[in-house]
Design a protein that fits this description.
134 residues, mainly beta, glutathione-dependent formaldehyde- activating enzyme (gfa), 39% strand, binds zinc ion
Length: 134
């Protein structure tokens, strides 16, 4: 199980079991939203997660060309989790929001085509220019 939440504590979550996938996303949207070279994410079945507190959703067109929605705390603006039209029934929690960040064990990096040279955090991970083929 993982638990986490936003900076101010108003938006909290927990998710049961183990993540289905976990990794880094280097897409431009994650860079702009997160203020760094990547965002870490842990992917769970939507049903495994419980979210408490107010959220504000912001939708963009993701790398897939379909809608990706980030859910943030309306007070402190932290992005806490995301959902994507291309990934129905799944919730991606952002690794920086974990209470215990050591639980995050990324295995892959996606959208490495937009990874900046100064961000070498995906060294040793399975890298995908965009996303793995399904
Ligand atoms: Zn907050
Ligand atoms: Zn991304």
């Amino acid at each position: 199980m993982i638990t986490g939440g936003c900076l101010c504590g108003a938006l909290r979550y927990r998710a049961e079991g183990e993540p289905k996938l976990q990794g880094l996303c280097h897409c431009r949207n994650c860079q702009r939203l997160g203020g760094g070279g990547h965002v870490g994410w842990l992917c769970f079945d939507e049903a495994a997660g419980t979210i408490e507190g107010p959220t504000r959703a912001y939708a963009t067109t993701g790398g897939s060309g379909r809608t990706a929605t980030r859910h943030a705390c309306p007070t402190c603006q932290s992005i806490v989790y995301g959902t994507a039209e291309a990934m129905p029934g799944l919730t991606n929690f952002y690794a920086g929001s974990l209470d215990d960040t050591s639980l995050f064990k990324p295995t892959m990096a996606i959208f490495t085509r937009s990874r900046p040279a100064w961000d070498d955090s995906s060294r040793g991970l399975t890298c995908y220019e965009t996303v793995p083929l399904r």
